[in-house]
Design a protein that fits this description.
Layout (H helix, E strand, L loop, with lengths): L1 E4 L1 H17 L1 H20 L5 E2 L6 E4 L5 E8 L2 E9 L10
Parallel strand pairs: 1-5
Antiparallel strand pairs: 2-3, 3-4, 4-5
Length: 95
Amino acid sequence: MRVRYTPRARSDLEAILQYIDQRSPLGARKVKRAIQKTIELVGEFPEAGRRSGEQATRVLPAGRYPYLIYWTVEGGEAWILHIRHARRRPWQGTG
């Protein structure tokens, strides 16, 4: 299945990698790869993960890292909605 990103998800990913890269370039590469692998999994198995409680939104952690990938399936495409650190308060599906 084709995977697409909302502008928010692209911004999330950029901010996460920029933050980590300032502290550990190697760490940033590892996190990026884990996120990419998780998103590839979403494309192959769009019903993977668990329901996040927000309509048809699903969530899956990015490997062993504390980042959560939120997505939904619309029009035969998986839309990455949001990428966030797991220690933040739970995402409510808005803003």
